[in-house]
């Protein structure tokens, strides 16, 4: 009886040890292969809305509809340092609408009115067309439909607006629903160092 | 005659052309193609007036040390769960731990990262040479299994957020017939196999079934597809009368944990008692994990109800005698 029990205990130990070794081996393999943190990001060179050459087509709004978060985690971001600050911005105004008394298009492009326009620098009140303007996108209103991105790119604009994933909104799904839906495969899962710029990486302590 | 007709035709064509021209010139100003006024972005110097280019707000992903903290908390919660159930045999504090885990891993971390979903990531990382997972994911996957190998399914008890949300809605559990219980329990192995099959497909056809059909993550995130919220609600409603239906019949990680638990040296034990084999624990177990008054460890979710109901052990046995005194009895 006691010998039987010890045999059972021994067998149990062997089995436990085997499973433990398997787990440790698997974990070791995965850790040796491991990369750091990975995040999803939009590749502007692949995204239909920001990719060059694609003009006069309807903006793709799959980022808005496919995301699992109610108000998509994708936002249009205006990189101010690349913005032309034009008086008549094709991403702010609907440039095919009729011109009003100030010489500006009468309709705005954004369906959610998320972009604001503000004169900056040395403002000349006499001649508004001679001023520079700052176009800021309200993150709480924007849903990443990409209409402004499509209009901002060359040759109409300078391509300062791109679609970006907001990491405060993104839940970093295993299989990003937008990536699955995107016909251009423009959503990539990247190591965090590639997805954001170096100074920001340093601040994260990565 | 024919010359006359030609002239008339010509005149008609001219009038038509004129109309067309008028139409075009009447069209609003945008007929003139838009041309961008600048070819390069003006920089602050050119803009003048002391203008400074504002920073573009780019929220950063969760910092790495916070992810390590998550793994640390998971390990700590596992340890506390083992201690509370196996050593203290205390249900009250275990319920507190369950609520805490639900709040942190469920509602605060929005159900991600969880060991259940990590099955798929681990599978893909093991099979696809181009896919790798961060170290924290590996740790999240392995930790509960190692604990189960020594102490049983402590993860299910006080740690798992999906288990916790079901644990807290158990109201009036019915006893599922043993055969039916066992048959339904096989579903989780099928689900595990299916999830692995879908995860090892080539990258484009790959699907993460466990995450896609996670019934409770919609509640944790306070948003989700209506049909998934409905399924989650149905699971919770059923969970009032059938204890933890997702854990018992579907959870693929539960399948792995119950395999590991079979090898565990320690676990929930119901001590044989010569005088009093009352069976109160069997009645208290909502999960059918006590058979013939002994715990069936692979099915035990470490809820410690059996201890709470035991007159010889746990809280009841440790209660002060005054508490069990009958009202009106002489003191």
How confident is the prediction overall: mean pLDDT of chain A? 85
Contiguous helical run count of chain B: 19
The whole-angstrom Rg of chain B is 33 Å
Q: Could you estimate the helical fraction of the residues of chain B in percent? A: 55-70%
| Helix proportion range of chain A | 25-40%
The strand order across the widest sheet of chain A is 1-6
- General shape of chain B: elongated
* Structural shape of chain A: elongated
Number of domains in the coordinates of chain A? 2
Regarding quaternary structure, how should these chains be classified?
A: heterodimer
Overall strand count of chain A: 6
Spell out the key features of this protein:
heterodimer; A: 206 residues; alpha+beta; 2 domains; two-stranded antiparallel ribbon; two-stranded antiparallel sheet; 6 helices; 6 strands; 16% strand; disordered C terminus; B: 331 residues; mainly alpha; 58% helix
What is the compact description of this entry?
The complex is a heterodimer of chains A (206) and B (331). With 206 residues, chain A is α+β, with helices and mostly antiparallel strands.
Secondary-structure topology with pairs:
The complex is a heterodimer of chains A (206) and B (331).
Chain A: H1 2-33, E1 38-42, H2 62-66, E2 74-78, E3 115-120, E4 132-137, H3 147-152, E5 161-165, H4 177-181, E6 187-191, H5 192-195, H6 198-204
Antiparallel strand pairs in A: 1-6, 2-5, 3-4
Chain B: H1 2-26, H2 44-47, H3 64-88, H4 91-108, H5 115-127, H6 135-151, H7 154-158, H8 161-167, H9 178-185, H10 187-199, H11 209-212, H12 217-221, H13 226-239, H14 245-249, H15 252-262, H16 280-284, E1 290-291, E2 294-295, H17 305-308, H18 314-318, H19 321-324
Antiparallel strand pairs in B: 1-2
Helix pairs in contact in B: 3-4, 3-6, 4-8, 5-6, 6-15, 10-15
